[in-house]
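Dear colleague,

As promised, here are the two records you asked about, laid out in our usual form so they can be pasted straight into your sheet.

NAME FIELD: protein one
SEQUENCE, THEN STRUCTURE:
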Amino acid sequence: MPTRCALAAGLLLATLFAPWKQTEVLGRVKLTTLPVRERVQIQLENPLATLVEEERLVTLLKGTNIVDFSWSNTRIEKSSIQLRVLDNPLRPAREDDADFVVRPDGTVETVQVINVSYPPGENALAWEVYSERPMAARVRISYVIEGLTRSFNYRATAAGDESTLTLAKYVRLDNRSGEDFGESGVWAGFGSRFQRDIGLNEAREMLLWRFTDVPVRKTYTFDWWNGRPVPDQPDQRYVSMKYVLENTTDSSMGLFPLQFGKVRIFQKYGHGGEAFIGEDWGRMTPIDGEMELALGLARDIVVSRRITANNRHTVHGNLFNQEVTIEYNVQNFTSDAVTLEIVEDIRRLRNTLCGVREHDPEWEVFGEAIPADRQIEMRDSRTLLIGVPLPGAPEEGEVEETVVKVRLWLRNEW
């Protein structure tokens, strides 16, 4: 007979027909028969604690009943266990109901949980349940259990032109709790609800939601400080590619946050086939946030970076300003016109040119070196972004080189 998480169906009468307030608590008795689980619900909203709720039909006799709940080799948090009587019969309150909780509508429940005790040294507890008459009561037992964990993963399938994609979100439930739950309802706190057989040491993967026709933005980024170096080209870094999705209702999503999880990325091609193009870890993305998915390196967009001016101007004593000019030379060998995002970490630039400092740099872009069609933005106190539109490569002839120059002041260094 299973002993894990076992709610004993047998009940012990304590002075059968006497009110519970006049009875003495009897010693705990080991009971053997197990009532059948009528229903199990597994709640996965909290990543750190899984809530289980199970319902059973328990036969109560008139008077005080001892209901035994024991678990062995099961990772239940003892302090989280609770019992509630569902569909509890009500009656009007009387003058002698001093020991009963009177509800706001003037009624009292005819079944009351009056006490709980924990036998020392055992994974068990016993509830004292008083019933005014013999009946079969439906009870709900809830508890937090360890070893019943969930994780999320995604499958992103881009259209052939990469303008939209379908994002399928899955939840994986791993049961290493020591308990066999059998047929259970599973809910992650959002998305679809499931009925699955959750066996001991088993895993189940379930499709939570499928978002279709999600607009996608493909980005190309040159990051000198974090990009991958090009072999034998000290002035170059590879350009990285990403898909950017907006978790908004305007983008056919925005129903709930997208949890952290691995994303496998595919792209459709002719005749209904799909090609695997990469995978990435999608970060936690709230509603109205953006999820970025790395696609790899764009080897047909070439960028070189050089510092063409680096001059120090003394302000007073050891205080100085540093005048810096950075030149980027860009070539797009693809046939498509794209926009390249150049990322420059000004703090790391300052530490390289002026020596390592602990404070954030004070800096500004000056002059007219950046043409009007270049989009420049200060993302934060240390990051400069430059948007560079690039024409597609011609079918014949040389690829046009786009030159971007940025002039900076690094102010008040010492």
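NAME FIELD: protein two
SEQUENCE, THEN STRUCTURE:
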Amino acid sequence: MMHGMNKKVLALLGLGHLMVDMNTGALPALLPFLKTAFGLSYTMIGTLVLVTNLSSSLIQPIFGYLSDRSARTWLLPVGVMAATCGMASIGLAPSYTVLLFLVFISGLGIASFHPEAYKTAYLATGEKKATGISLFSVGGNIGYGLGPLVVAFCLTVFGQRGMLLLWLPGLLVGALLLWSLPWLSRAQSAHTETHAANVDTPPYALALVLGVVTLGACVHSGLVTYVPLYFAERGEGAFAVGKLLSLFLISGAVGTLIAGPLSDRIGHKLFLTFSMGLLCPLIVLFLHSSGPASIVILAVTGMCLSPMFSVTLVIAQSLMRGRLGVTAGLMTGLGIGAGGLGVTGLGMVADAWGVETTLRAISVLPLLPWGIVLMLPSATKAKAEPVPQMQVATAK
């Protein structure tokens, strides 16, 4: 095992991550269908996305705080099951109110899984932090990318009730994690870790990193929500829209896999400067292209945008000196959740001026996180600090 990286733990957590994030990716592909089936306005769609973000993201720091206080590995199987069962039950939803409730339950599952999983993954990465976190993150990227395809298949073949098929993989992966808890516990208890904490880092650095994630997430959520609606307006069917969205998200997974080793080699700030700097021109090009060219540009946009999440998480965890759960909760929860709030505002823009205008607004947004990346301090001297044993051991 190179540099103490526990690939078995990362693979198991990656599988759970795949299942949880499949539900995150499922909702955007569901939106055009739900809009027609329930007669929703763009503002009501924005509210659905808002409820998802509040429950799946903004409360993650609370789960992160609990995760740092004591090991709560049971959150891993419970999170997977709640996330999937909430989303799958949309197959039986009779009204908009029930839709909001089910999306909320699914979001709670997503929120409870991430901080515990990121903490456990970080402790299993060894020395190559970005590489290890990328391996774990890519499970989520693939799940996020598969979500729209799975939804498109379920809806096309079986209609709304087809969503109930999601129960099966959710319960299977949840059961596997439940069965693996004692083994995960032993693997982690045996694993001690010293991790680099930047001692010369200015206190505003974490706020800057959080700013990059929040604004980057606003761009990502905006594209994921409005690109399917953009293509649906142009007459594309549910399956074609699902395939396009999956392409965007899975190319993000490819980008994340490349980003880990590359940013470990050239430096995290330099990597972000290049990848984030390309976003603005790419989205503008996408809006001015059609046919295969627009699909290729969409894929390249995904490759540049998605790696931001794992690379910024590694930067933040090196700044937070071992408070791994809270850091993961802040970055993947508060940051991404606050970014998702922008989608609600974009819904009002779409109602007033149309989806294309909304995408034009999104094309300018990447300039903001890119500007913040340029302000990030370069890597400073790091001092190895032992992580307290409480954080290394998981639930017995």
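A couple of things worth noting about protein two: Residues 192-199, 380-396 have pLDDT under 50 and may be disordered. Residues 88 and 215 are 30 Å apart (CA to CA).

Best,
R.
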